[in-house]
Amino acid sequence: MRHRLFNAGAKAAAAAGLALLALVAVPEGRPAAAAEPVRILALGDSLTAGYGLPEQDGFTARLQRALRDKGYQADVINAGVSGDTTAGGRARLEWALADQPQLAVVALGANDGLRGIDPASTRENLDAILATLKEREVPTLLAGMYAPPNLGRDYGERFNAIYPELAAKYDVPLYPFFLEGVALDRKLNQEDGMHPNAQGVAIMVDGILPHLTGLLDDLPRRDVKG
C-alpha cells in the first residue's frame, strides 16, 4: 500500500514539475509568428527595371539590400518595364497590385518626356495611378522627373509642375528627381548616356532611401525593423 502511495506521489510530483517547466519555458500567451516582410511595389520604367544591368545591380535589388542592411524587413517588387510611359504604368497597375503591396514607389514619366507626350496626358495618368493607390490605402512615394531641356521652356514648366502638384493633391511624399546626382554624368551612366550604371544606381538608392524609410517608419502595424 505504501509502495503504491509512493508511486502515486512521485508521479504527481513529476507532473507538477513538468507543468512548472512549461510555465517557465513558454511566455504567457501565444508566441507571435515572425513578421512577414513588407511588400514594396516599385512601379516604373527601365530605370526601375534595371535596364542593361545584372539583376543584382538593378534598382530594386539594390534598394532591397539597402533596406535590409538598415534592419528593415522588406521585399521590393520589380514592376519596372523598359520603355513604359505613364499610360503603360496606369494600364498595368491592377495587375501589379495583385501582389498586395503594403507600400509603393511610383517612378514613371521619363519616357513621356523623351517622347514629348503632352504633359496633360502625363498628369492624367499619374493622377489616376495615385488615386487608385490612395483608394487601396497603399502609402506611396512619388519619384519625380524633369523634362528634357530641348523640348522648350513651356513644355518643361508644364511637365515639371506635375509631380509637386500631384504630391500635394494626394498628400504623398515627393522625391523630386529620380535621377538626382546621376543624370548627365558620363561616369555614372551606361554608354547610351541615359541609363545608370551600377555606380549610378547606388547613388539613386542612397538618395531615395531616407524618403522610403520615413514611409516604412510610419506604417501603422507590425515590426518592419529589427
TrEMBL record:
<feature type="signal peptide">
    <location>
        <begin position="1"/>
        <end position="27"/>
    </location>
</feature>
<dbReference type="Pfam" id="PF13472">
    <property type="entry name" value="Lipase_GDSL_2"/>
</dbReference>
<feature type="domain" description="SGNH hydrolase-type esterase">
    <location>
        <begin position="42"/>
        <end position="202"/>
    </location>
</feature>
<dbReference type="InterPro" id="IPR013830">
    <property type="entry name" value="SGNH_hydro"/>
</dbReference>
<keyword id="KW-0732">Signal</keyword>
<dbReference type="InterPro" id="IPR051532">
    <property type="entry name" value="Ester_Hydrolysis_Enzymes"/>
</dbReference>
<protein>
    <submittedName>
        <fullName>Arylesterase</fullName>
    </submittedName>
</protein>
<dbReference type="InterPro" id="IPR036514">
    <property type="entry name" value="SGNH_hydro_sf"/>
</dbReference>
